[in-house]
Structure formats: C-alpha cells, structure tokens
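Hi support team,

I'm filing this because I wasn't sure whether my run with 6-O-phosphono-beta-D-glucopyranose finished correctly. The job status page said complete, but I'd like someone to confirm that the output block is well-formed before I use it downstream. Pasting the exact inputs I used:
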Amino acid sequence: MALSDFDLVLFGGSGDLAMRKLLPAMYARDVANDLPPTARIICVGRADASQEEFLQTVETTSKPLIKSPAVTQSAWQRFTARIVYVSLNATDATSYKPLVEALRKDEAITKVYYLATPPAIFAQICESLKENGLVTPNSRVVLEKPLGRDLASAKQINAEVGKVFEESQIYRIDHYLGKETVQNLLALRFGNILFEPLWRREWISDVQITIAEKLGVGNRLGYYDTSGALRDMLQNHLLQLLCIVAMEPPTSISPDAVRDSKLQVLRSLKRFTPTTLAQNIVRGQYRAGHVDGKAVPSYRDEPDAPAHSRTETFVAMKAEIDTWRWAGVPFYLRTGKRMADGLAEIVVRFKQIPHSIFNQPTNSFQPNSLVIRLQPDEGLRMNLMAKTPGDGMRLKQAELELDFREQFKSPRMEAYERLLLDVLRGQLTLFMRGDELEAAWEWVEPILNSWESEDSYPLPYASGTWGPAAASALIGRDGLQWREEVLPED
Ligand code: BG6
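And here is everything the job wrote out:
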C-alpha cells in the first residue's frame, strides 16, 4: 500500500535513537521508493543549531551507520533534502512556533509525532502539541520505550497521552515486534495446519525464550542503572515474545484481535508470591571476564557505575500461564548482557514419545523441538529423530531447517523500518495497546517491589558465560537444561 504524504516529526531528533536507528531506517525506505516525493522528516532538538549544522551532524553521526543499502551520493542528497531541523524546548509550549511554521498546513498530510525522549516529558510534549493546534484526527503519536518504570508511571503515561490522543492514534513501540521472525511466528502458527493441534499442554513440555547479548551496558549506564534487565528487556521484549507464542488464535490479524489475544496471555500469567518469586527467579550482575577472547570489566567498574550497584544485568525465570491450554507448562525466560553468545531464540520442546519400538530406550530419544531463531540469523529449525544411514536401525537427532535468508532472497528490513512504515500507514497490529502495557507492568511489579525492599544483591556471573549457576539449577530442578547445555556444538 503506497504511503500518503506525511510530515514525520522526531522529538529527540538529534539523539542517539534518531541517529542510530530512525534516520537510517527512513533512508532505507527512501531508497526502496516507499516514501512519497514530498514527505518530510522534521527533527526537533533543543540545540540552537542551524539547518546546515544539523545536516552536518547527520552526515557524521548517522550516515556512517548505514550499512545497507550502501549510501550513494544521489540517494543521500534526495534523503537529506527531506530533513528539516527545528530547535525548540519540548517542555515549553510557547517555544513551538518554529514547529508550527515548519509543519505543512494541509490536514490531509499525515502528521506523526515520534517521541524519542525520556517518558517524563511525554505529557508535556502532547499538551504542547495540542495547545499549538497541532493535533488533528489525522495525527499520530509514537511512544518509544521505556514506557514507565512501574504500573503507576505506565498508567500515568497512558492517562496523560490519552488526554490528547485517542487510543487509535497512539503507537507504543516494542521493536522486537518489528523483527522478521516474530511475524513469521504468526505465519508459522496460524498459516499452517501442522502446529496448532500440537500447540498445547498435551504435547508441549516446555518453552524457553532467550535474548542474550554479548554487549555490556556501554554508554547507557545512567539509564540502565535505574532500570535493569527486568525493566529493560523482560517486561517488554520477552513478554511480547511470550504473548505471540502463547496467545489463542486471534479472529483476524486486525490490531484489536491480536492485542486482545496477547492481553489474555498477560492477564493469565501466574502471579508470584514472595515464596514462589524466590524459587523461580534468578537475577545476576556481570563481573569481569572475557567475551570473544577480549577482557571486559565488571559492571561495577563501568564508567560512572555505582560501586555497590544492585542493578541486575541478567534475569532468568520460570513463568506459568494459568489457562486450559498451558496449565503446567513452564515458560523459561532469560535475558542478560555480557553473555557467552549474542542470540535471540524461542525453543518449543515437545514431549517424549510414549514408548520405543526400537532397540533403544525411550530416554535415548531427543524429544522433538522447534527452534525459532530471531537473531543473529533468522530461521526455523525442527529437530526430529531419523534413522542413521547404513545397516541396522539406529535413530539419531536430525534437523529440518528453514533459513529465511536462503529461502527468501528478497531484501531484509530492519525492525524500525517496518515499524515506521506501519505507523505511517496507520497499521496498529505490531504496537502495544495501553491495557497490554499496564497488564505487563502489573505482573512484573511484585518482582520489582521485592528486589527494592530486600537488601540482597544479584548473583555475580563472569562475563562471557551464560549467567549465574543458579540459572542452570532453576531449570535443572525440573529435569531440564537450557538449550546450549543440551547442544554444546550449537
Ligand atoms: C533495547 C534495550 O530495548 O533492546 C537494550 O534497551 C538492548 O538494552 C536492545 O541492548 C536489544 O535489542 P536488539 O534488537 O539489539 O536485540
């Protein structure tokens, strides 16, 4: 569907996200000829820079980060001609005149306000837009994470933004929902007859969802130390993946049908009590170690890190969903920084065969599993038992592999490219609704509270490992192992 003309306004327009992700994403879509010829990107910043100075910053900061498609001079010129820099104080409605003047008056032109700013100023920006007459039925607002730091702040954001924009105009970004494989998971589950009959407690033994990063906290310590892995990754990305794996078939791909199904999962997550919380959650903090053979410092020795920081950089937990479909099936969720490998994957493990007709005991059979790989490579792998070639009847694990890159030669799209296109098209399916956001915070809040009130510390783990040993013990108690422990050669 061709996009209609738009003015995309990036608040935080000279910030890290705009430079690293948003402008490169828009460039890629421009090169793909997705953008209407007169569409513009208005970058809003506080700095009193001229248009030329700002474009110079884009040239030196953003352009080098564009790897694909390779930047050509003509395409770059066409792209930068769309950029307009506007300097104002986002929290002062009286300073919005330059933005009012920069925006085109024609109401048929879609106005998108992308708030890549701290959430503390979302409300003031929305009110200022309204006060300046910049909100019409054809305008949309995009909210970048973190979307609050607990239930109360998330509710406050929803309420304040909701005073200015209708829910149908609000796009809450979780960039994991823009990843190719996440949508392929929808295709896998609901575009095939094979999986849905098996997708339940009778056939599935457990599900593991891992997002592991080799990177440390980098230059984001100021933010990260007040957040931690639970807020930064689990409350949003991991829970969204869990929702897509566990949701009931939506009636259609329409935004509310999908979001209703996801909401039902969030509301069915078993609540933790102080006892179950201690038994089922492990948190850790990285210490010095080696990643890819390179020595890396401890979290507490990162620049500006508090010497006694209690912020977790790793979380592993066993979650359960109280529904007929999933009762009793553990969902192991895990995320961490400075891990042994950088990957994001979902592993659905099926139950063991009930009886072996071969001269091999049942427990020598690896249960079937489906590995859904989000990154670094994108694909699906089904592990099956097969006969080894030659004489005799010996069964061994074999793999059916679908590598998306191999199979579909079409060019890739980064998550932000897809999500920005969806915003510009008015397609809400891949964005969180307000009630989903609140349900996710409601579930994690007891965990946050217990960590805040107690005086215990996260467990230390060496950088370049898979986290504290307690994470293996957590899953080991159920007689299971994390995938890399089962398949070390992977
Ligand atoms: C962000 C987190 O939302 O996701 C970062 O704030 C994290 O801490 C990042 O590094 C991971 O995203 P991706 O797409 O690189 O896996």
